[in-house]
Amino acid sequence: MLELEVYGLASAKVIKCFTIDENDNRDLLKILRGAQLPIASSCFGEGNCKRCVICSEILSCQVKIKDLLQISKIYDTAPLRITVDYL
Ligand code: FES
Known about the structure:
binds FE2/S2 (inorganic) cluster, Ubiquitin-like (UB roll), alpha+beta, two-stranded antiparallel ribbon, 87 residues
């Protein structure tokens, strides 16, 4: 299991913490929305609108859990913090 912490920069607080299965094959946009987080999108995850940005530069619709696991191993953080500008 991978522990995620979603931090809103606009509110300056942790919005939600939750765990996800490492074998979940959905993109992060779907996972965050599945966790009832209002992540913006107007291209339905096709990678065009750039509204689903997390951590200042990552398109959540283009990132899978395996990518997050790679990041978490590099930075050795638990939980893995995801920042969203407008939350
Ligand atoms: S949802 Fe449009 S770029 Fe990710």
